[in-house]
Amino acid sequence: MDPERAENENVGRADSLRGGAGDERGRAYDASLRLLAERARSRAELAERLHRKGHADTVVTPLLDDLERAGLLDDADFAEQWVYFRHRDGARSRRALGIELRRKGVDDAVIEQAVAQISDEDECGRAAALVRRTLSRRRTPAADDAEAARREQRRLVGMLARKGYGSELAYGVVMDEWRAAAEERAADGD
To answer: What residue spans carry the region label Disordered (predicted)?
Structure first.
C-alpha cells in the first residue's frame, strides 16, 4: 500500500471517530485531539480532563474506547514514554516514576512493565550523573571544614531523596562522587 493512501485511510478513520460537527461527541473528540497533541496522556488523565471540560461520561467512555482502538490512546505506550523521558531528563527514580504514573491513573501491571526498562545500574548511574553535575556547579567547602562538607553532603542526599532514590543508594552515590571530586581537586592542585 502506498504511504499517501495509508495516510488518507488513517485520517478517514480518525475523522469517523469525531461524530457530528456541533454535537457533544465532536466537541469532546476535538478537545481530546488538542490534549493529545500537547503530549501523550493516560486514559484516566484524558477522561479527567474531558470531564473537567463538562463532557458527560456517556460521551467520554465510548470516545476513549474508540481512541484506544484507533491507536491514539495507549496507556502502555504513555507509561513507557513517561518513564524514558522523566528518568533521562528529570533523573527520577523507578519508585518516583511509579508514583507519578499511579497518580495519572495507569494500571499497576503497566507501571511495573514500564519501570522495568530502568536497570539498577541505570538508576545508580543517573543518580551519580546528577550529583556530579550538581557538584560541578557548586563551590565545595574547604577540605578542612568537615561540618560544611557534611552539610553539603546532606543537601545532596536530600536532592536525590526528592527524586525518589532510596537513602542507601543516595548516600552511597553522594559519598562516592564526593571522594572522586576531592581526588580530582587534589590532582588539579598538584
So the answer is: 1-25
φ and ψ at residue 58, rounded to 5 degrees: -65, -20
Distance, CA of 67 to CA of 166 (rounded, Å): 38
Q: Which domain holds residue 96?
A: 76-115
Instruction: Indicate if the pLDDT at residue 189 is higher than 80.
Output: no
- The amino acid sitting at 16 is S
Angle, CA of 63, 65 and 68, to the nearest 5°:
110
Whether 68 and 21 share a structural domain: yes
CB 122 within 8 A of CB 93: no
Nearest to 94 by CA among 116, 79, 110, 73: 116
Residues 178 and 133 in one domain: yes
pLDDT in tens, 52-94: 999 999 999 999 999 999 999 999 999 999 999 999 998 999 9
The SS3 assignment for 171 reads helix
pTM for this prediction:
0.78
As a whole number, mean pLDDT of residues 18-46 equals 86
Is residue 81 located within the same domain as residue 64? no
